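Re: beginner question about structure tokens

> Can someone show what the tokenized structure looks like for a real chain? I only ever see the sequence side.

Sure, here's an example I had lying around. Input first:
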Amino acid sequence: MFSNHIGEFAALFTACCWTVTALAFESASNKVGSIAVNLLRLLLALVFLSIFSFFIRGKFLPVDASADTWMWLSLSGLIGFVIGDLFLFESYTIIGSRVSMLIMTLVPPITALLSWIMLGETLTLFNFLGMSLTLGGIAIVIVNKGTGEKMFSFTHSMKGIFFAFIGAVGQAVGLVFSKVGMGDYSAFAATQIRIITGIVGFAIVITVWKKWRNVGNAVRNRSALKRIGLGSVFGPFLGVSFSLYAVQHANAGIASTIMAIVPILIIPASLIFLHQKVTLKEIIGAIISVGGVALFFL
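And the corresponding structure tokens:
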């Protein structure tokens, strides 16, 4: 049974990993800032992946990748990690990982729209219904009925919501470029390429913004460093790698739907580990949004 559904199990494991990493990086970003967390978690993930790759593939680095593979996966890393995660991690500090991950349920619909535009893939009526349901679930959580002349108001910071949306777009574009560039190449080696370019990209950003002191402070903060280490293992090392593995070994729609259940998994985790207050509206919105992702792939 396990071998017949290895891609689906990989997708479920990915969802669990992303739940852990969202909570860990939210906590670390609140302590030392999101940009330092982004760079350090990629550096740690590259170390983990390189050691793993050596034992599995006999190569520390993806030196066997073709030029085309490097090009597409590098673009994927720059857009997905540098742009997407830069905004996503900043949204953690503004609206929290729980609401940010809810907005990230937009990744599968956005990915499908981009695939339709860039790769000529088709969209059906169920696709559009799924998109609408996902948007509806998110709206339940972040929109309130307005008072006076205002038709509606937002329950959370518009800046944080916008940053999370940019994060979703970045991850969707990164996923499409990964699909183009990876082919049947090793998912773990492909992740190494994305991480290497992500590190270079963040190093440039930190230099331009003159934020190296923030990185130094983060390294000296043991509490934050532990959380970054935990998030690095479950995020760019295991999570991202197994997400690519899931897409390779299972129907992409089924894998994406399973990986999209993070907003539901993160609710009990937030209650238990961060002692955050969760409203009924947030639970209903998360279920509806994930239901929209599932409907999207029927």
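Each token stands for a local structural state, so reading them left to right follows the chain. The chain has a mean pLDDT of 87.
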